[in-house]
Amino acid sequence: MVADSRRRKDEGLTTPKCIAGLVSPPHRSQRAPIRILLPRVLSPFQNLTRFVGRFGLVLVLTAATLLLPRPDGLSPDGHRAIAAFVFTATILGLQPVSLPIAALMVPLSLVALGVADANQAFETFSRPVVFLILGSLFLAEALRKHGLTRRLALHAIRLAHGSTSRLLLALMLLTAGLSMWIENTATAAMLIPVAITIASQVQDRAQSQRLLILLVLGIAYAASIGGMVTITGSSANAVASSHLAQTRTWTFLDWMAFGVPSFLVIFPLTWLLLKRLHRTGIPHVDAEPALKQLAEIGPLKGAEKELLATLAVAIVLWIAGPQIESLFGLPTSLLSAALVAIIAVSYLAVREIIAWDDLKGVSWGIFLIIGAGLALGEAVVRTGVADWVADNAAPVVAQAPVLVALLVLTFASALLTNVLNNTTIAAVLVPVLLRIAEQSTLNPLYLVMPATLATTFGYSLPSASGRMALIAATGILPPATMFRTGMIMMTASALALALLFYVLEWMGWS
Amino acid sequence: MTDKLRVLVIGAGQTGSRVLRQLQKDASIHVTTADPRADPLAVKEGLIKAVDIHEALTPLTFKHVIEEAKPDLIFLAMRPEDMGLGAASGVDILVAELQKEIAALAKVPVIEVSPAHA
Predict the structure, then answer these.
(1) What is the percent of chain A where pLDDT is above 90?
(2) CB A35 to CB B50 under 8 A?
(3) Chain A residues close to B8, C-beta within 8 Å
(4) Alpha helices in A229-301 (DSSP H)
(5) What angle, 0 to 180 degrees and rounded to 10, lies between the N-to-C axes of helices A76-94 and A385-399?
(6) Complex ipTM more than 0.95, yes or no
């Protein structure tokens, strides 16, 4: 407790004090509630120092990379592309400015370092996959506007029949189910308040806090794991899909052929492990308040039904769009994933279920992050960095036993994702892995898919993912707990993923 | 005292200050303010001497605050950026959803105030 308050002081945090006699401070009252969302108040000077320090470090590391001797076989352009990677990785990791603005600096760095011209640097921002993700964000906003997420969460609580274990499972399933189709962090942000409400019903402070940590971690992990299933699940998936689509016919369903088995292995494993690691001592939670709230909000309204139906149709078209196109002789790519998202959003707008003003709250930044990641990936290919890495790595990878290669890939990717933005990892790893596959007899999907899916396991640090950053911002769980639980989850998940792909490869799954 | 309309204003920043200015026109209204910040705008501008409840309202703290403030009416006048949670992705959604939870839990009417534009 003392260490925590010292840490908060060191970080410029202020702990809310209850004054004016209205609310007793915690040490004076046993009835005092659990406090989260402790405000972070930095002075303008602290803000400036932080910016200069972080941005300075980005520039120093980039310059240091440029000053390093150029490795044999790497072109001068390739050397500068590696510096661009260092710039991207550090600016997205350290975030001296907000993430979307940091992402916007990536094309700037590519042009400044001479590895792209302006057209090349910005071309990737208009890729279909960027609009697919934007469309899914619009759908998420529609769900939120109409309170459907909350309604579904209340149903999940009802279905758990008060069992804490089933409640965790129900909330995790709901979170994962939503995050398959809509952005992961947005899904977690929508459901964490529901977890806080559930925890608030437990009278014992310690038990309430333990339950809150369990549910919030469950929601955060499930949001990431659900994202494995589809292209829309995460920006790393979008980047990997964009690269795969340039080398082969690659559809939404092709991704799911690997995403679904991965989910079916990792999700139950995470649920079971989480229950064992965070025992709450509360076998049952009162479901009555949720039932009352469900009764208060009444049955589904017309717009809500139509919204759910639209989402269901969009999911069917995402999965079976290409088959429907050829069956009815529709123009090619009319029912491609990005256009299906746009059709769904357009329909909802025509029906006045959503309006443009509703979409102002959408996290537009992801558009810039994916575009920047793709631009970096293109530069890595164009400047020969991917070939250079592949030339050096292909013989080693080709000779290594498949299981060893898979273990190295998944663990490297999972570890990196805790410190680097997962889009950056996919942007650089995927083109390199595709080149390695070209130079060996390996199926590229067994390199690209496990490496990309392992970026899901960023559980240990706030820098690991938007979900972890969000939880860290709320102050719901101590950093040490996040790290400890995250490392265990990451290790178990990476191992399970590697084993799964080993089995799939043995089965000839594709 | 008990006959007075008791109003809880959540947020004492720019938006909350606008609400406070209007409520202060009627002396018969008993106003309680809640804000997690040490020195929000309403205090700086002298509209109130101090915030009554230094608390970031969540469903965990809400019941406690309601028990203490006993409001008849609540104004939600706090922008996501005023929560001091930084610029993490999703914070705006989280705060909006927290406010929805609070509105659902409240037994009294909750009025959400549009952010003020300077």
Answers:
(1) 46
(2) no
(3) none
(4) 235-245, 252-277, 288-297
(5) 80
(6) no
CA distance A472 to chain B (A): 9
Q: How far is B58 from chain A (nearest CA, A)?
A: 8
Closest CB from A31, A186, A467 relative to B64: A31
| Both structure tokens of A26 | 């915690």
Residue with token string 């008990």: B2
Q: Which residues of A touch B89 (CB under 8 A)?
A: 99, 185, 363, 365, 466, 469-470
Q: Which residue carries 């990892």 as its tokens? A: A425
More confident of the two residues A98 and A378 = A378
Q: Which of A16, A31, A149 lies closest to B56 in CB terms?
A: A16
**Residues B59-114: tens digit of each pLDDT:** 888 877 888 888 999 998 887 777 766 667 778 888 888 888 888 888 889 998 88
Q: Is residue A84 over pLDDT 90?
A: yes
Q: Please, what is the average pLDDT of chain A?
A: 86
The chain A residue lying nearest B36, using CA atoms, is A16
Chain B positions in Cβ-Cβ contact with residue A22 (cut-off 8 Å) = 32, 52-53, 68-69
- Mark yes or no for CB contact A35/B55 under 8 Å: yes
SS3 A191: helix
H helical segments located in A421-463: 422-438, 445-453
Residues in chain A: 510
pLDDT tens, position by position, A126-174: 888 888 888 888 888 888 888 888 889 899 988 998 899 999 999 999 9
Give whole-number Cα distances, B10 to A185, A361, B18, in Å. 26, 21, 12
Question: Mutate which of B55, B93, B97, B110 to test chain A, going by most A C-beta atoms within 10 A?
Answer: B93
B21 has a chain A CB within 8 A of its CB: no
Nearest-neighbour CA in chain B from A405: distance (Å): 34
Q: DSSP for A68-95?
A: SPPPTT--HHHHHHHHHHHHHHHHHHH-
- What is the SS3 assignment for B111? strand
Q: Give yes or no for a contact between A236 and A424, defined as CB atoms under 8 angstroms apart.
A: no
The Cα of B25 is separated from the nearest Cα of chain A by a number of Å equal to 22
At position A191, the amino acid (one-letter code) is L
d(CA A241, CA A238): 5
Give the whole-number percent of chain A exceeding pLDDT 70.
Answer: 92
Name the residue of chain A whose CA is nearest to B92's CA.
A361
In tens, the pLDDT along A236-260 reads 999 999 999 988 888 889 999 999 9
**Cβ–Cβ of A196/B51 closer than 8 Å?**
no
pLDDT tens string A196-221: 888 888 888 888 889 999 999 999 99
Does A23 contact B56 at a Cβ distance shorter than 8 Å? Answer: no
CB A103 within 8 A of CB A372: yes
Angle of helix A252-277 relative to helix A205-226, nearest 10 degrees, comes to 160
Task: Read off the tokens for A242.
Answer: 């964009």
